[in-house]
Each structure stands twice: as structure tokens, then as C-alpha cells.
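Bumping with the actual sequence this time:
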Amino acid sequence: MKTEDTTETAGTAESTQHTGTAESTDRPAGTADTEATDQAAPPPEDARARRHDLTAAALAVLLVTAAILIGRYVQNRTGTLQVQWPPLLASWDPHLGPGTPAALTMAVLVVAYGPPLAARLPWRGLLAAAWAGSTAWVFSMALIDGWYRGVERRLTTKHEYLRVIDRFDDIPATLRDFTNHIVIGEPGNWPAHVAGHPPGATLTFVWLDRIGLGGGAWAAVWCVVVGSSAVLAALITVRVLADERLARRAAPFLVLAPAAVWAGVSADGYFAAVAAWSVALLALAATRRVRFPAAAAVGGGLLFGWTCYLSYGLGLMAAVLLAVLVLARTARPVVPFLLGALVVPAAFTLAGFNWWTAYHLLVERYYQGAGGVRPYAYWVWANLACAVLAAGLAAVAGVRRSASYAPGAVRAFRTGGPAPAQRLALLVLAALVALLAADLSGMSKAETERIWQPFLLWLLPAAALLPARTARYWLVASVVPALLINHLLWTGW
């Protein structure tokens, strides 16, 4: 399917003279103008925008290189980074595994056929294919490390949730006592991941165990299958807030997300999906694209409340939720959303768990461990290098385009509303704001390639703003580093 690449820079800093120019991105593919443009040389402004994309990608590569070189120097000299292969929490371990052929096959198939299939499939068929493709990609990446080491054992190590399942025999009593075991030094203090998250994270695996799906294998399957559904939530959100064409163009980049290296297998992938569905339901309610918008808003609120009890830092997803309301130009879903969002906090509070007390104790626990040793001066920028590796170079170039769309998008709110590409850009930038806030907080020093998955998910659709004819090149630029990381390093947490 041919598309008009010369309009992709509409609304950017390179061509923002007219705030409505980005509307040209909605021109149906296959028109006579498009056919002619595809066969012509790109105009100067389009070539300039592409050079800027490549410059952004090159700067991102330099950032990663600096994080590696400076990180190795600091770690070898002082050991304060508390990671073996900075900036990633990983160790050098070249290896192949049963997932290697599957991962390579998935990468080749999606790069070769993903963009045209995403353009042609019926919408529901695209959603099904995207979920299946994302699940296959994450599983294949995990299986590069083998079934036992890469899947079954991941959530059963000494830091993980499954180590404390037997301590939740009496759930109400455990919740009342939860905060007494967060700080190191207290009797029976929780493992790192249990202490570092509200009890909703651990309860997920307790409930799986209660219904007969106990053990590391079932926990891993849950995290991968549910986590991969985040792709659907992102596609639906982009479609209703921007347009379907941009959602279709984003699909291959969401399926082949480099973050699969850490999503398989990590509970953070599951957290990302819960947060993503909260955003998607609010978007559907705000745009009234469902039969019962109020019910969708309540559902989105329920999921946001649950999100905040999965990870303390995911309250920052409020930036993305606010962007949804701004882009939809309505406050109509706010009341039902807030009513839904209060349910989970109320239930946990009545059960005896105090979120704020737990958070302050977590801060103390964080600085008792690696968080108190890792230097902020390094991690405040090296975290962004981790984000580059987990989001990919296509997302970096897309974020650059999003930033250049922003001025025109803001002006367009005063003249009738932003164009679809501009709306997508603002959604992406809202996620970037949440990510930067997490970074500046100092509570995310290292391991952000895993921890920031809920934010990184929303940077990936920015790749839809890149010229369609370059999609395969950008897919390769994102997926090759991910495959190299998974085959050359042992990534842990």
C-alpha cells in the first residue's frame, strides 16, 4: 500500500507554517496525487526531516555508547553502579537457545510482511494478529534463555513474588501486617520485589495459585499473555484519538517492541497492560466510541486504581490519562472514572493496607539497598540510554517528530483542533513527560529497561509518524539491537 510520505512532516518544526497542514496525512492511500508523489524525489523539507530523524537516532546511539563506556569506568573503579554490564542490569553471556530460530523468524516475517499486512487486514483481524504476534515475539525472546532459565524460573528467584505465596494464607491479616516487613532489618522482611511494590502485585500470583495455576510456569504465561495485550490497548487508543491509519502503521513497531527482552518474563509487562487498558477504556469513553461510555470510564478507573496498587510509580500514568481528556476535548468521563478509581484504594484501605505509609517505608528500604549507593549523577541520564535500548531507534526518531509537531498541535487547539498526527504526537509526549518525571524522582536508578515498560509502550506508536516507505528500515534498526542484547547478555532483575 502506498502512502504519501511527503506529508509526514506536516505540523513539524520543518513545516509548521500552517497548523492545518498535518491534515494531509489523512488523504486516502492510492490517490492520484499519492501515486505521483511516491514516484517523485522527496521535497527538500521531507529530506531535511529524515536527516533530523537520523541525527536523533545517531545521538541516541552516542548516548548508549557513553552510558556503556562511562558506566564501565565508574563500575570498575568504584562499584557503585551496582550493575555488571552498565547501563543494563545484565552480565556478558553469549548464548543461543530454543527461542533463537523462532525469534529470528518472527523478526524477518514482521519486517517483511508486517507493514503491508497491517494496512490490509480487517481491523479486528489486525488486533488478533497483533496480540498473537506480540505474544509469540515475547515468548521467543524469553526462550532464547531456555524454558527453565528464561521462563519457568524467572518469577521464582529470591527477589520475586512467588517466594512469599505461602505467607498469604490469610490475605486480610497479611495486608494488615504488610508494611511491617518492608524495611530491611525488620523480622521476615519481604524480598526486594514484594517490598518494592504495593501488595496488588503479589496478590495477582496468590490468586493464580488459588485457582490451580501456581508455580513459575503459569505465572510466566500469565505475564506474557496478559502483558502482550497492551499492544491492543495502544492500537485502540491511537485509533480513537488519532486515526486508524496511524494505528495500523504503528502496529508492526508495537509487535516487535525491543522491550520484549525484559517483558519475557517480567511482571512489569503485566503492569504495562493493566495501565494501557486503563488508558484505552478512558479514550473509548471520552470519544464515545463504545455503546456505554460511562461503563467504559468506570472500567478505566478501576484499572487505574489497580495499576496504582501494582507499582507505586505508575501513578505517573495520570499524565497520559490527562492527555486523553485533552485530546478528546471533554471532561465528561471524569466523574465515572474517578468513582471507579476509588474502588481499589478503598478496598485495600479497609483491609488495613495504608498506601502512603508503605510508600514512605519503601523509600527508606530503597536507600538501604542499591538505591542508596547508585549515583544519581550517572543514572539520571544513563536511565535514558536504557530507555533507548528498550524502546528502539524507531521510537527515538518518532519522539523527535512528535516534539516537532507539538508547537503546531498546540496552536491547532485554538483553530479547530489538531490533525491526527499532531494528536498522536501529544499522546506520545505525555508519556515522555511521565517517564522523565520518574527519571528525575531518583527512585528509578537502573533497571529502567524493565521498570519503565508502562511508559515506553506509549513511545512506540510515534514510529507511525515516520515515512511509510522507511518502516522496514526502522524496524530493523530497532529489532537487531534487541536480538543482540538477548543473545549476548544474560538480563536479570
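The C-alpha cells above came from a reply further down the thread. The chain has 23 helices and two strands.
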